[in-house]
Each structure stands twice: as structure tokens, then as C-alpha cells.
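I am writing to request your help with a piece of structural work I have in hand. I set the record out below, with my sincere thanks for your time.
___
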Amino acid sequence: MQILCTPDSQFEGLPEWPFEPHYTTITADDDTPIRIAHAELGPVDGEPILLMHGNPSWSYLHRHMMAPLAATGRRVIAVDLVGHGRSDKPASKDDYTLARHVDWMSKWLIAMDLQHTTLYCQDWGGTIGLHLVANFSERFDRVAVSNSGMPLGDRSNWFLKLWTNLMGRATRFPWFIFKPGFAKPISDTTYLAYRAPYPTAAYEKGPAKFPVLIAVTPDNPGVPLNRAAWAKLKTFDKPFLTLYGAKDVVATGADARLQKHIPGAAGQALKAAAPEGIDLYFDNVGGEILDAVLLQINRHARIVVCGGISQYLDIEQVRGPANYLQLIAQSATMQGFTMRDYMSRVPEAFMALAGWHAKGEVKFRDHVLQGIESFPQAFDMLFKGANQGKLLIELASEAA
């Protein structure tokens, strides 16, 4: 491989970036030496916090995080991926593959000999970082991942298809989309600091190639690598936090997949919704949802069970709650409920509900879809809980 090194002069006087580079040299699979740069802050003997950026960024992304994290007594390390920041830059797009990125950063991790690491990883730093966790789980104590994932070629969207197709032919990164992509506007000087590692198009082969490596189709070479990493991550039971932006169109849904399959991430959304625990739960789902709730119940909690829709497709092999011992530990109560137990009080209920509705104390919400052709969508929404309110299909308006 031919290697390019961004001149040090490109990094002089960058705003909010007082950090000197540290270099670790690894050997690529073709025996090419590659320097991988990182910035760091905090005591050398502190437990490490590893920050891994995405594309087309570099460790400058973490400039506001390093000092507060180092103040906790940790050694904060912000690494530049190969082809980015102050790290060396292979000169051809063909030099960059997912397998090589994982190999390069694996060799760097071993050379740094990081132990008891807290990893924060974002975008492509997340994909590569998750491979590191999968392959070296003993080196990581906890993980926080943001707007990232390891796709298996089975989930795509219009943006990913357009993005990967366009970048397959690109010779440099389309910087005109970078600055407008920030939720919080950045200054021109900050924008130029992000671009500092790439003085000409020759230095941009890594950022230009990354979009093509996203495994959005089944034949992408990254699919088997990601599948193997997923198999290992399914046993990772250390703390695992997902932090995803609502406006991200690339990683949409990846957080739910991580929470579902990685033991350390289980119940995360529920903890956020009920940070003080659960006192009362009305269950109509059962299965994994009930299991997650049981882990969050408070002492003397009450669980009312009126259904178990997650179990109806295989009624002969209904799975009971896996965490039922929590009922003992928390002195909690779980009781079945059907409407027939309270039929004698139906008139009383109607009167009370009508009064509350008239006073505005109870409000009804409908989620209306249009036309009989929307039935498949409505049926799917019903089982996913995607509707907000009573799910209805309007066949014709009153005017018709």
C-alpha cells in the first residue's frame, strides 16, 4: 500500500484542540507499517475510556468530552481511525475494507494493551468498536454506542441505498452535506477543523470508501464478518448503553436490535421510561416484555395479567415468565384479570367514564388509517404497538 501522511501544519491552531498526537505503529496484512494516532488526557494509570469517532470525522469530534471524562480520574483516549485524522492514510479506495479496518484497530488495541476499558463509539467507530468488543470482550468493562450498528444485509432504507450507490463512484467525500448535517450549527472555523486532515482529495479515500462498506445488501463482504461478531456479542452481559438520535436516518432501529440481542443492553428503554422502578403493571403481552418488567418492579408491586399476545401464535408451547423469582424477592403480587369478574360493575364504569370525559379528565385518542387497502399496515401496527390510540380504518367519510 502507498501511504499518505497529513502534514502537521494542517493541525496548527485548530480551535479547542490543544492535544498533542501519540502514534502507535502496526503492521498491515501486506507488511505495510501504518501509524495510528490518538489524543489522550488524564492519568496514564487510570482506567481507560476509549472514544471512537465516525465518518468523515476524527478525534476532534470528542474535544468537548475529554476534559470532563478525565476529571473522573480516567485515562481518556480519542483514537483516529486509519484514513482519518492524524492517522496514516492508504492512498487507494481499494485499500479499505471492513476486514482491514477491524484488523488495523485490533492490532492497535493489543499494542496499547488496554484493559478494563469503557468504550464510547459512534457511527463507523461504533461498527469497528463493536467488532473489538466481540473479539476482545475481556478488555472491555462497559460500552456506550451511539448512532451505529452492524448490519446484516437484511435492513435498508432509501437513504442507505442512495448513499452507498453514489459513494461507490465517488473519488472524494461530498463535504457540502457535512456542515448542514449538524443538529446544532457549527462555525466556519470548526468546519475547517473537521476538514483539516484532508488537504486534497488524495487524502480522502478512506472517508469516500466507508459508505460503500455499509453491509446493506446480502452480498456485501461485511455481512459474514458482522454476523460472526453478532454471535459473540449475544453473550456480552456487561453494561451496554445505546444513545441514538431521533433524526438519524442511517442507524434507525439499530438501537432496538442491540437492546434485543445483547444481554447487557436488555431493558434499557424500560429503565429510561421508569427510572424509579415499577409499582403497577397491566400486562397484555407477556413474554420478553413481562420478563423485563419483572426485573424493574419495586417492593410490593402489583402485576395485573389480562392477556399474553406474544404467546398466542404457539399456544401449545406457551413460555412462562423467566424472572418470576422477582415476585418473591420484592414481595410482589401477580393476578389474572378478565372482564367477566367485573360485569356487575359495567354500568357504574360507564357512568364514571362518561363523567370524566365530559369534564375533560379522560381524553380518547384515535389513530386512523384511510381505506381498506391500509389493512395490512394496520394489522402490522397492531402487533408492533405502533399505533397511538385506538387503531381504526376509515372506509368512507360521512360526506361520501
Q: What stands out?
A: The mean pLDDT is 92. The first strand starts at residue 3 and ends at 4. The CA atoms of residues 174 and 208 lie 8 Å apart.
